């Protein structure tokens, strides 16, 4: 309920109450945004593993989008903002760990999700953007799962081809190899 203040014979809503009302609307939208992204992430976690058809156990986990992680369920820590408390209204990131071998080798994809008008966009870090129409429940997830699968497959296929062609010494992983430094000095 807004407080009404008498302002020289006329009644007006106080600035503080107006601020509170606006922030409450902001927080309601932040909760809607978080819930939409959390639901999507959980569906991707379970659906993508089914899509891949791994017959030997779990092959996808939600993991933190940054920092160290283990391929296991991380719950709330898998998202760039917390599920409770004051949340910022904006893009939200989450990590998706995908098992890429029959052993225990995992690849983390970081995805940033955002609503733009009546579209919902997911960008794979350093990769492409996939766009859904809202509401999300009306969209089949299979084209998105194929998009993820192709992203991972092409990443490895590209490196295989580079190796076969003798061009696998790039620095795209962010550091120099000790042998490259010694070769440059020689």
List the defining traits of the structure above.
186 residues, five-stranded antiparallel beta sheet, two-stranded antiparallel sheet, 37% helix, elongated, disordered C terminus
What's the layout of helices and strands?
Blueprint (H helix, E strand, L loop, with lengths): L3 E4 L2 E4 L1 H38 L7 E4 L28 E8 L6 E11 L2 E6 L4 E5 L8 H23 L13 H8 L1
Antiparallel strand pairs: 1-2, 3-4, 4-5, 5-6, 6-7
Question: What features would you describe in this structure?
Answer:
The protein is α+β, with helices and mostly antiparallel strands. The protein has a domain at 38-166. The protein has helices at 15-52, 142-164, 178-185; strands at 4-7, 10-13, 60-63, 92-99, 106-116, 119-124, 129-133. The strands form two sheets. It has a five-stranded antiparallel beta sheet, with helices on one face. It has a two-stranded antiparallel ribbon with strand order 1-2.
